[in-house]
Amino acid sequence: MASISLRGIVKRYGSGPKATAVIHGLDAEIGEGEFVVIVGPSGCGKSTLLRMVAGLEEVTDGQIVFRTAAGERVVNDVEPAARDIAMVFQNYALYPHMSVYDNMAYGLKIAKVPKDEIRQRVEKAARILELGGLLERRPRQLSGGQRQRVAMGRAIVRQPQVFLFDEPLSNLDAKLRAQTRLEIQKLHAELGVTSLFVTHDQVEAMTLAQRMIVMNGGRMEQFGTPEAVYARP
Ligand code: ADP
Ligand code: ADP
To answer: Where in this chain does the record put each ABC transporter domain (predicted)?
Structure first.
């Protein structure tokens, strides 16, 4: 697991006189194994921040640092695939012609992970996500909730140091949203992977977060436990 330091993070889109800053110098320390939710209104910069941690967006100024047992590395210039992260989006695209097993195994095959190890990792993920009996099915033979779990399985099998969630629940109906939220909590309890979860939904933030970052207009307004954040006048 990695801890993450965000040091003086600035993001500007565009350049010269037309440049607009959307993140204005953000500092935060996310502990090893911690589940942190980034919450705030639409357009406040949540997604931009997460995408910078993922390496999908360049950091204009400041440093993103991952710290593991192996040491500390500034990841600003590290490509996404080499960051040891896995991202879960709201629109998970499963391969329709592949079985559940192959959907989860695909990324590992590309990465040339040995077959035996792929099988072990897929079976472990399937056990955690209760997909054990469904490995031979195609996505169209699954319920919405099961598909969402396969998408999470694909992230788990990579054994990342960090999980990044970009509003993964926002397209689901209320029942499925509640169910998937429990699934994510269980996953974190079991694997303890450092997680950053972006949402605009305060209830979601409160129920999932160990600590939450409250953003507004590209700035961090608060960073604390849900109790501490909501106790503030
Ligand atoms: P949130 O995830 O909180 O809704 P975003 O991170 O998506 O917010 O966006 C933050 C701000 O940056 C918004 O004002 C948005 O319009 C702007 N923005 C996002 N992406 C781009 C881009 N590629 N070019 C210019 N501005 C952008
Ligand atoms: P390839 O086409 O590269 O041979 P396969 O998809 O046939 O890959 O299977 C790769 C490995 O995964 C094999 O060792 C196979 O036994 C194992 N495997 C495939 N499907 C399952 C499954 N549903 N449950 C357990 N192991 C599986």
So the answer is: 4-233
